[in-house]
Structures are given as structure tokens and as C-alpha cells.
Amino acid sequence: SYTLPGITGTDLVSANYYSDLGGVTPIVGAITSSMTVYAYDETSGSPTCWDQDTINVVINVTPIIDAIADVNACEDYTLPALPSGTNLTTNLSYYDSSGGVATGANPIGVGTVINSDQIVYVFDSTNTDPVCSDEVSFNVNISAPPSPSVVGVNPTSCGGKDGSFNLSVLN
Predict the structure, then answer these.
(1) pTM of the predicted structure, to 2 decimals
(2) I need a labelling partner for 105 at 20 to 30 A (CA). Which of 18, 61, 95, 152 fits?
């Protein structure tokens, strides 16, 4: 949204912003969509003198990315489809650092396998001037799985010691 600033000038009487020519329908409150605005003022005496300026207000929608919960996985994690949200563009992507490509972040493709702890950023931006953007991030925490090892087991042995079974967890 956009809040119009006060009107300044000389010899103003009742200057205001209007949504139509000739100062008929005043604009009250913030503007929430793109529109043409007319700054209009007129004198109250005779003769009635008036002036108006035209202003084009462009409201660019901002993408809003839904939050993503942190992920705890064993061994690895495959990045799923990009998250949903509102007003998302084709620029939506995963990145290895904050700010998207404009800040030098490297894109990470959907389906990429992550096998170590990492912060993943999801960034989207419009192709407008000014650029409107949103970013969320989430932690991917990778845990090592248990690592069993079988030592000296001989399943064909009869009546003897088959060995031992050692189950250890790697940190």
C-alpha cells in the first residue's frame, strides 16, 4: 500500500487527492492497488480558478513465501518442490546464502541432496521497479546413522563361539 504525502504549493485553498478528474471523489486512506490519482484544488471566489496534477501510483505486489520448518534427517535430505505462498514469481528458488542472486547467492536446485548441516534460503523477487522480495530460511540438520559391525560371526559353526556383534553410533 501507499500513503499519499501532503500536497504543497502556493495559494492552496482545499487541495486534496481524488480518484477522478475535477475533484469529485476524494481518496481516503492508503492506496492498495495501482491507479491514477489527481491532486486538485480550486478557489472558492469568483472567478473559480482550479488546477490539478496527475500522478500514476503503481503498487507492486510482494511475494510472500510460506514458512518452512527445520529438517532433521539421517544421512541426507533431498530438497522437495519449492514451497507455496502468495504472489510468488518464477524467480522463486532455493539458495545457499541470503539475498538471492543479487547478493551472490548460488541457487540450489529442487531435488538436490544435502548431506551435511546447512541453512537453506528460499528467495523470491519481482521483476519490477522497485523490486519487491521475500525470503525464508530453514536449517537442515543431518545425523549420522548407526554403524553396525559384525566381528567374527561364523553361522556355520556348531557348538562353538560364534563371535560378537558390535553396534556403535558414529558422531
Answers:
(1) 0.69
(2) 61
